[in-house]
Design goal:
This protein is an alpha/beta fold. 35% of the residues lie in helices and 16% in strands. It is built from six helices and six strands; from the N terminus they run ααββαβαβαββα. The strands form two sheets. It has a four-stranded parallel β-sheet with strand order 5-4-3-6. Helix 1 runs antiparallel to helix 2. The longest helix has 13 residues. The chain starts with a helix and ends in a 6-residue tail after the last helix.
Length: 168
């Protein structure tokens, strides 16, 4: 389930799908995705697919996590990232390993609290957690060098655009 061979197979698959940023690949090879999924799905953790995390939510497919992370890093070396949709905290952990500070906001309290506990257990310390409607962003800490939205929507909320730093 968590063997290095299974993890490396996932990383090779991500490379084949076009992920090129070695920083992203290295971090994703290192972060224990099995810690971010429900017990019943731990054996599926390193498959390149989304999985349920409870509360009618999912952990994103590894390819999508890699693609979004690669995109937010493409503009240089962002220091402050806003993540909308904490979920299990997996995308949060990936971002936290690559940037100075992650501000993450989630609308489902139990997910916020379990992600906070999980990341503390994994010694991830550069994350600020918020419980709120992510379409409003997190104005007190803006501007952000990049914003990653892990939830679906019909359009980009204007509040998020307003909270993005120049060049972000």
């Amino acid at each position: 389930m968590t063997s290095s061979k299974v993890r490396e197979a996932l990383i090779q698959e991500l490379r084949q799908q076009g992920i090129r940023d070695e920083r992203v690949l290295e971090v994703m090879a290192r972060i224990p995705r099995h810690e971010f999924v429900e017990e019943a799905f731990k054996g599926e953790a390193y498959k390149n697919r989304s999985l349920p995390i409870g509360n009618a939510q999912t952990i994103s497919q590894p390819y999508i996590v890699a693609l979004m992370t690669e995109a937010v890093l493409a503009g240089g070396s962002p220091k402050r990232i806003l993540e909308v949709g904490t979920g299990s905290g997996y995308q949060t952990a990936v971002l936290a390993a690559l940037v100075e500070t992650v501000f993450t906001v989630e609308r489902i309290r139990v997910l916020t609290e379990s992600a906070r506990t999980r990341l503390a257990r994994l010694d991830v310390r550069n994350v600020h957690f918020g419980y709120a409607d992510g379409t409003l962003g997190w104005p007190p800490y803006a501007p952000y060098d990049g914003i990653v939205v892990t939830a679906g929507g019909d359009s980009v909320p204007p509040a998020l655009v307003e909270q993005l730093a120049v060049g972000g």
